[in-house]
Amino acid sequence: MSNDQQIIDSNINKEYEYGFVTDIESETIPPGLNEEVIRLISHKKEEPEWLLEWRLKAYRHWKKMKTPNWAKINYPDIDYQSISYYSAPKKKELSSLDEVDPQLLETYNKLGIPLEEQKMLSGVAVDAVFDSVSIATTFKDELKKAGVIFCSFSEAVKDHPDLVQKYLGTVVPYTDNYFATLNSAVFTDGSFVYIPKGVKCPMELSTYFRINEANTGQFERTLIIADEGSHVSYLEGCTAPMRDENQLHAAVVELVAHKDSTIKYSTVQNWYPGHPDTGEGGIYNFVTKRGTCLEDNARISWTQVETGSAVTWKYPSCILKGDNSVGEFYSVAVTNHHQQADTGTKMIHLGKNTKSTIISKGISAGKGQQTYRGEVKIMKGAEQARNFSQCDSILIGDSCGAHTFPYIDVRNPTAQMEHEATTSNIGEDQLFYCNQRGISSDDAVSMIVNGFCKEVFNELPMEFAIEATKLMEVTLEGSVG
Amino acid sequence: MNISSFESEFNKIMRRDYFTSHVKPIREQAFNNFLEKGLPNKNWEDWRHTDLKPIKEIDFRLSEISDAPAHELDITEFGLDDVHTIVIYNGHYQENISSVPSGVRLISLADYGDQNAWKIREPNDSPFDLLNTAFMDSGFCLTIDKGIQIESPVRILYISSTEKNIMVSPRMYIDLGESSSITFIEQYEGNCNEYFLNGSLIVELKENSRMSHFRIQNNSVDTVNIGNIHVQQDSASHYTFNQFACGSRLGRLNLLADLNGKGAECFINGLTLTNNIQHIDNHIVTSHNAPFCTSSQYFRSVLQDRSSGVFNGRTIVSEGAEKTDSKQSNKNLLLSKGALMNSNPQLEIYADDVKCSHGSTTGALDQDALFYIRSRGLDIVSAKSLLIRAFVSEMIEPIHHENIKSYIISKFDAWLNENTVQ
Predict the structure, then answer these.
(1) Using an 8 Å Cβ cutoff, are A293 and A322 in contact?
(2) Cβ contact (<8 Å) for B356 and A413?
(3) Chain B within 8 Å of A348 (Cβ-Cβ)?
(4) For residue A408, how many other CB atoms are within 10 A of its CB?
(5) Is there a contact between B351 and A406 if contact means CB atoms under 8 Å apart?
(6) Which residues contact B13 (CB under 8 A, 6 or more apart)?
(7) pLDDT in 10s for each residue of chain A, 481 residues
(8) N or C, which terminus of chain A has less Cβ within 10 Å?
(9) Can you spell out the DSSP letters for B118-170?
(10) Does the CB of B336 have a partner CB in chain A at under 8 Å?
(11) What CA–CA distance (Å, rounded) separates A478 from B14?
């Protein structure tokens, strides 16, 4: 297996391909966190009084909280006072692409988001977030015709304050957890989506996040509301430039699904995972994602491909409140080099005949440590609730780890729940079988890993499925042996 | 029982002089550590589903001489008459009716400690281990020398019989020499009201030795039964654990098995039957510290009324423990609306050439299966009990020892009769 060893080595030594820093003037407030900073953020964003109050309440609550330590991740303590909580590219309120800083456009091009060509190419509206402030949003008009609201969070606060006030914090309250509370206090921007009654969103909605500007934590806030009978598919994806200092990302995503509606939320995450040898400089990704199936027959589906970040702490969850509602979680997580991931989901069954499916695939290589942590809770009223969970892990190399911590809590006897998990390496017999048929070890391995993840990739929208497969190639392909 | 009542009981035991002076500092050390840690609460990850109210609410006291039986005991009512039995009654060793087969050396804890210059294992993994060390009574050690096979099972019978709130902390060591073997039964019986039993058992299996361990928890439903079992396995040793639990208001098993030698095998099984407000928590940790080891954890529960259960099984595969083969399975049957089951089968893996899997299911009896059986003329109660029996038999069938098996079946039958309702 010396050939495989070479492949492992060459891939494990691969440097992050998308690392670069864009040099743009940006408006940044000095590092530090106090009530003044929050007032300043709120003031700069011209927010209404109630939102400032809400931020301050969150901040006061956050001061009383302690950093959670139950997750199986190690990272140096974060100095929250050394982070700058607001950073925005100087030019704002652009009416056309010509006004956008050419350097910025170049960055997007490197990322593969040609804003100019997008309209023709993909039919995807992109709300590009570049260091906390949305720069440009496309396809607004077409969406407007359908009645869909898709805009940056700050615009939503200005233009649709009633909707924001009604739903903000209903799924993830400001008291929820350490990082969500921090986010509630200092979030700068994000995306807002509202799909009106009976509307099927005419296109996939997509936001590209990109972290820039050293020492700037990103605190995004996304709120998606699907009204009765509506349907929306939302895509989120990101890459980030190389950094020496750790960057904190504490986003909050809230989904609200009303009667008969469907929300599909897909993520491809490929942030800088840190220096390959030391793990230094990678992104800390502490994300709270949660959706509520508020009324009957609603459906929320999370799909994620996690290949980046030094530390990932992420549990996209579904609260299945309405009868017959459905929650789904499909995940592929890859940890290589010194990456650590503690990720999974929570399915809380409250309504009758609620169903949830969890498919989690973990791949751990190098010195990566990966944990699946999932909770399935079937409450008393959840008659005939049904859950199926499957969590499989592949280990590549002898110094990585894969851990599975499911929490299963059943309080209703009519519920049926199943959980299964396996952990293994790629079988020598599988490789041998492929070799025997003339397939090189390298191809065999990528075939096996792709096959391993297929169940999840199939759930991704077309545009993302391609990107995800590519990402897997970059991060892993061939490093299996 | 609050901290101050623990303290006053501790002062009492320190004034007694059963043990040599070596024990006092060990007790003190353990008790101080316990005071530092305190009793677990629901914020502790390992205790989040278990409420220790039955311990906290009642003040237990040490067992006195007056709690020993006034007249000779008859143990035939506890079944299993073809085994050698060591009887512990309310924490008091009953020498006159106890026996061990030849080949087994039974020595008191004091002698065992002296023989080993008091360098004996003092587990401190949980506060209950520390409590046990602080309050240990009726301590002894079973030693089986190299190459000796013990055919007849050895049983240790804990009988609790009192109206008063007694706490008992039995401490026991089992040392199996190279290539020796034994079948060992722990049996908990008794009809008492509030009773707090916190036992620690430390097992050491030398190379190529075998132990088949049964734990029958059949004590009254007002008892608190905490069992702390620590198993150390050398290479090619074989350990099988079977628990049958239907007693106790609050039951908690902490079983930690370390597979330290190449090719060790460790199979841990448990069947739990609960009703009313019983709560039984099984907390199992299997650590693979050497290559080529095999382990499994199979646990099943049947829960009636408002009873609740926890299965918290963890398999740790350390770096270098290649070729590990490990399985976990937890299946639970909820018979009533108020029943609650928490299942956390966990895998922690730091080696790549391993095969590990786990599975967990929780649900009610299959309505289609019930209908099928009823359509063939059986009434609902028989149909239900047939299905429950099928669910349970997978745990009971593999037991090799016929007498133990039929004893467990008789206990199960009694439970089933009482608990199958329309």
Answers:
(1) yes
(2) no
(3) no
(4) 25
(5) no
(6) B27, B62, B134, B135
(7) 456 666 656 655 555 555 555 555 556 777 888 888 889 888 888 889 999 999 999 999 999 998 888 888 888 888 888 887 876 554 344 445 555 555 555 545 554 544 543 333 333 444 544 443 443 455 667 788 888 888 888 888 989 999 999 999 999 999 999 999 999 998 887 888 999 999 998 877 876 543 444 334 578 889 999 999 999 998 886 544 444 455 788 889 999 999 999 999 988 887 777 777 777 778 888 999 999 999 999 999 999 988 878 889 999 999 999 999 999 999 999 888 888 999 999 999 999 999 999 999 998 888 889 999 999 999 999 999 999 999 888 888 778 888 888 898 998 888 888 888 888 887 778 888 999 999 887 778 777 888 888 888 888 877 667 667 766 665 654 454 4
(8) N
(9) T------SSHHHHHHHHH-EEEEEEEE-TT-B--S-EEEEEEE--SS-EEE-E
(10) yes
(11) 65
Q: Under an 8 A CB cutoff, do A418 and B359 touch? A: yes
**How many other CB atoms sit within 10 Å of the CB of residue B277?**
14
Candidate from A380, A408, A422 with C-beta closest to B342: A408
Considering only CB atoms, which chain B residues are within 8 Å of A412? 334, 337
d(CA B270, CA B394): 11
Is A16 a member of any domain?
Answer: yes
Structure tokens at B365: 């009896």
Nearest Cα to B90, choosing from B169, B17, B12, B187? B169
Rounded to a whole number, what is the distance in Å from the CA of B187 to chain A's nearest CA?
A: 30
- For residue A62, report the phi and psi dihedrals to the nearest 5 degrees: -60, -35
DSSP letter for each residue of B249-277:
SEEEEEEEEEE-STT-EEEEEEEEEE-TT
ipTM of this complex: 0.73
Nearest to B64 by CA among B28, B90, B33, B29: B90
Collect all residues of chain A within an 8 Å Cβ-Cβ radius of residue B343.
406, 408-410, 419
Question: Quick check: A425 contacting B, CB < 8 Å?
Answer: yes
Q: Does B12 touch chain A (CB under 8 A)?
A: no
Cβ within 8 Å, pair A380-B363? no
Assign residue B408 a region (left: φ > 0; alpha: ψ between -120 and 50; beta: otherwise): alpha
A454 in any annotated domain: no
Inside any domain, residue A411: no
Cβ-based burial of A421 (10 A; exposed 0-12, middle 13-18, buried ≥19): buried
The reply to whether A429 touches chain B by the CB within 8 Å rule is no
Between chains, do B344 and A400 touch, taking CB under 8 Å as contact?
no
Which of B315, B317, B360 is most worth mutating to test chain A (most A CB atoms within 10 A of its CB)? Answer: B360
**Which residues in chain B are contacts of A430 at CB distance < 8 A?**
none
In the three-class reduction of DSSP (H, G, I as helix; E, B as strand; rest coil), residue A386 is classed as strand
**Which amino acid type is present at position B12?**
K
> Residue B337 burial by CB count (10 A; 0-12/13-18/19+): exposed, middle or buried?
middle
What total number of domains does chain A contain? 1
Q: Do A423 and B339 touch (CB under 8 A)?
A: no
- Residue among B336, B346, B351 whose CB faces A404 most closely: B346
Please check whether residue A410 touches B, CB under 8 A. yes
Q: Is residue A22 part of a domain?
A: yes
Closest by alpha carbon to A149, among A41, A161, A116?
A161
- Chain A residue numbers touching B335 (CB-CB < 8 A): 413
Full residue range of the structural domain in which residue A100 is found: 2-314
The encoded tokens of residue A368 equal 């990566």
Q: Which amino acid is at B220?
A: S
What does residue A433 show for φ and ψ, rounded to 5 degrees?
Answer: -60, -45
Q: How many beta carbons lie within 10 A of that of residue A244, not counting itself?
A: 9
Contacts of B340 in chain A (CB under 8 A): 409-411
For B137, what's the count of Cα atoms within 13 Å in the CB-facing half-sphere? Answer: 25
